[in-house]
Specification:
The chain is α/β, with parallel strands linked by helices. Helix content is 27%, strand content 18%.
């Protein structure tokens, strides 16, 4: 059982709790009603819990930014039901179409040129000429897309820059009554955000590592997609990386041969580690100890994606 989190100066009081419903048909109907009325709702995807709103409604998208405290220069991922729906919004070249055919539905986001007149609120794209699109695999998000018949802007359902939510309880602790409804579909299977690849002409560019490995040039100095801020996914407590042992006052998250108070994976399995990463960071943040340490997570692919999240989580906070 996760204890109520301690709030830093950024959030001095525990917010009221939102309504939480178990994932079923009635919950999807209620969520669709709220979304079509311009309100964001939280629900699971296969990666993390998302805060979904009508991507064609500027006021609804603005409520997402307000609920998260998110910088408006940080664009949102727009979720759609299938490739056909995506191609109505963005321009897909052969590379982008091949990636979509191979990995959708699933944890891959494609950044493609935005079609003029696509009807997406400009706030969702942060005014850029591109759009980040994903076809989710989780039945909850697919059901909501079918019920709303609108593209849904859906960043992670947490306060901006803090630990991503992989359980409904994480959403409640982070956002409180800033979201009207949370659909509880249990723990997320992947537990780490989608891979993001830009297919805007020329070589593919890897903008964010994630569950899917794609051969692409890893390079981006500008904010084109979520998760590119230097400090992101951050617990309230200081975080020490690559810890082989525990120092005084630290809650140690282990991995493989490094035992801890809890472990990402006793067997050193990076897929298991990704699924547990944010969950255990929430546990560590809620512990009585003032600092957090985490063991090294070696390897490529999803292990490199975990290290990317941890580097950002440990980065100095903006003043």
């Amino acid at each position: 059982m996760i204890k109520p989190r301690r709030y830093s100066a950024r959030c001095m009081a525990l917010p009221p709790e939102p309504r939480v419903l178990p994932l079923d048909a009635a919950a999807i109907v209620e969520a669709a009603r709220l979304v079509l009325a311009g309100e964001p709702v939280a629900l699971p995807t296969e990666t993390v819990y998302g805060l979904a709103a009508d991507a064609t409604n500027p006021a609804a998208v603005a409520r997402v930014y307000a609920a998260k405290g998110r910088p408006s220069f940080n664009p949102l991922i727009v979720h759609v039901a299938d490739l056909a729906a995506a191609e109505k919004i963005g321009r897909f070249d052969d590379q982008a179409r091949a990636l979509a055919a191979e990995h959708w539905p699933g944890p891959l986001t494609l950044v493609v040129p935005l079609r003029p007149g696509a009807g997406i609120a400009s706030l969702a794209t942060a005014g850029l000429a591109t759009i980040a699109l994903r076809v989710p695999a989780h039945p909850a998000m697919q059901a909501l897309l079918a019920a709303c018949r609108r593209p849904l802007a859906a960043p992670s359902a947490n306060s901006s820059g803090l630990i991503s939510p992989t359980r409904a309880s994480h959403v409640v602790a982070s956002l409180g009554a800033r979201v009207a409804l949370v659909i509880d579909g249990g723990a997320c299977q992947r537990g780490i955000e989608s891979t993001i690849v830009a297919a805007t002409g020329g070589p593919l560019r890897l903008l964010r590592r994630g569950p899917i490995d794609v051969e692409a040039i890893e390079a981006s100095d500008s904010i084109e997609v979520p998760g590119q801020l230097a400090s992101h996914y951050a617990p309230a407590k200081p975080l020490r990386l690559d810890a082989s042992n525990r120092m005084d006052g630290e809650y140690l998250i282990g991995f493989g041969a490094v035992a801890g108070d809890v472990t990402l994976s006793e067997t050193g399995d990076p897929i298991e580690a990704a699924a547990r990463l944010f969950d255990l960071l929430h546990c560590a943040d809620a512990s009585a100890l003032p600092r957090i340490a985490i063991a090294p997570v070696p390897g490529e692919g999803i292990a490199a994606a975990i290290r990317d999240r941890l580097r950002r989580a440990a980065a100095p906070r903006p003043a």
